[in-house]
Amino acid sequence: MRVLIDTNIVLDFLQEREPFVENAARLFERIDAGEIEGFIAATTITNIYYIIRRIAGRVVAQDAIAQVLNDLNICAVNLEILEQALALNFEDFEDAVQYACAVLHGIDAIVTRDASGFISAEIPVVLPEEIDAINK
User: Fold this and answer.
1) Do 40 and 3 meet the contact criterion of CB atoms below 8 Å apart?
2) Which listed CATH number (3.10.580.10, 2.40.10.220, 3.40.50.1010, 3.40.1160.10) goes with 2-134?
């Protein structure tokens, strides 16, 4: 199963944010075990770096990015993705970019804690703890 992981889930895992870290950690354990193939949009990397650097400093942010690069596949964000995202007319452009990446890469599900950003998605959108409900 190929899943695109929303920024909030990655941050839950990296920052050990309660009460969400347990479900995020379980998802990453399954990725590490090869049960699930995890993807993120390239733009998520810069967002994660910015947020963690602001909270914990540059070194912690760089370590977090190194971990993400080791664990997940990165979906390129290019002109085609950005044009598709714009055409989606989502409320949140970041979610639209992630969704366009998911479509282009044949993703089976988007894992997020904020499904409202993906209201018109044709790909299943699930919470981390719901991943087995759509497991193919």
Assistant:
1) no
2) 3.40.50.1010
